[in-house]
Specification:
Blueprint (H helix, E strand, L loop, with lengths): L7 H8 L16 H6 L7 H16 L3 H13 L4 H10 L2 H8 L5 H9 L3 E3 L2 E2 L12 E4 L4 H13 L14 E4 L4 E4 L14 H7 L1 H4 L2
Antiparallel strand pairs: 1-2, 1-3, 3-5, 4-5
Length: 211
């Protein structure tokens, strides 16, 4: 299954807030017809697990194959599979750029990386899935800083009434003047900030990850 490129508000209405997919909020609809479409029905256990998986997939902008690969890697690591899964996704380069505020969304961050606007430890990295490590230094190329500056202003300086100012997570450090970020440590999953039950995602893929 390819990466999702369709209407983003449609996914938000169905799954809830997905800050990595878009930072905009859909307009509320009060019509009876719209309300009847979203009447709460009793969900099956499969549907609940599927929904949690979809939240994770669309927030981080992954394909089905990519997410399954991460679940398999997390299953072989020490510790809780769900927590390790979230840490693996959080340490992706495109997500780190999003967390630092260098891009307003993860798709926007992925575009920066693909177009070779980003350096890690002084080297150009054009792989969005690159796994960052503690002490990695992420910087923007000089010719790309205007793009990053626009993102900084929108997220930190000029938030709309409905949008709060972005805060850099505790495991990262941002130097706006130098367009530089530092990965201090691996994030604690309690601070991910996404309303997700990662254990249900692991359970959804349990049959596919059995060897």
């Amino acid at each position: 299954m390819s990466r999702y490129r369709g209407p983003r508000f449609k996914k938000i209405r169905r799954l809830g807030a997905l800050p990595g997919l878009t930072n905009k909020k859909p307009k509320t609809r009060n019509s009876r017809r719209t309300q009847s479409r979203f009447v709460k029905k009793k969900k099956s256990q499969y549907h609940i697990r599927l929904q949690e998986k979809q939240k994770l997939r669309f927030h981080y902008g992954l394909t089905e194959r990519q997410l399954l690969k991460y679940v398999r890697i997390a299953g072989k690591a020490k510790g809780s599979t769900g927590q390790v899964l979230l840490q693996l996704l959080e340490m992706r380069l495109d997500n780190i750029l999003f967390r630092l505020g260098m891009a307003s969304t993860i798709p926007g961050a992925r575009q920066l990386v693909n177009h070779r606007h980003v350096l890690v430890n002084g080297r150009i990295i054009d792989i969005p899935s690159y796994r960052c490590k503690p002490r990695d230094i992420i910087t923007a190329r000089e010719k790309s800083r205007a793009l990053i500056q626009n993102s900084f202003q929108n997220l930190f300086d000029l938030p709309s009434r409905k949008q709060k100012r972005k805060k850099v997570p505790y495991h990262l450090t941002l130097n706006r003047g130098q367009y530089k970020g530092l990965v201090k440590q691996i994030i604690n999953t309690k601070w991910v900030g996404l309303k997700i039950k990662e254990l249900l995602v692991v359970e959804y893929y349990s049959r596919q990850t059995k060897t």
